[in-house]
Amino acid sequence: MTARLNAYLGFIDTAREAMEFYASVFGGEPTFRTFAEFGMGDPAEGAKIMHSELETPSGFVLMCSDAPAGMAGPTGSSISLCLNSGPEDDAELRGYWDRLSDGGTVEEPLVTAPWGDTFGMCTDRFGTRWMVSIGTGQPG
């Protein structure tokens, strides 16, 4: 088996909603496992997500969970997820950009950058930071 590095996102009470959103952006069917399924956590928070996973048709893997009561939730990080490809995937990446930035905050619009690629940065409505880079297909 080959080792893989997957994005694992942490939320406070919005993991299910976030993962359903990412499935609407990227495709695929998320799986959900709650704290209650494992007999963990306070019964009042049994519906919280202990683990969720989404594997997309493009081969992306996103995982996430809610922070249980008594555990500090995410406070942000300097990590951004980057979607990048060449011009052959322009329409696909622009579609991701449109859906991820809808309801979020655009830090840098998706435009031609000084180095020639199309590039943009946004934070989606769940607080996840994204970069989209569409290469020109020309040697750099």
From TrEMBL:
CDD domains found in the cross-reference section: PhnB_like
Database matches in SUPFAM superfamilies: Glyoxalase/Bleomycin resistance protein/Dihydroxybiphenyl dioxygenase
Residues of the PhnB-like domain: 8-132
Name this protein carries in UniProt: VOC family protein
Organism field: Actinotalea fermentans
Taxon lineage: Bacteria, Bacillati, Actinomycetota, Actinomycetes, Micrococcales
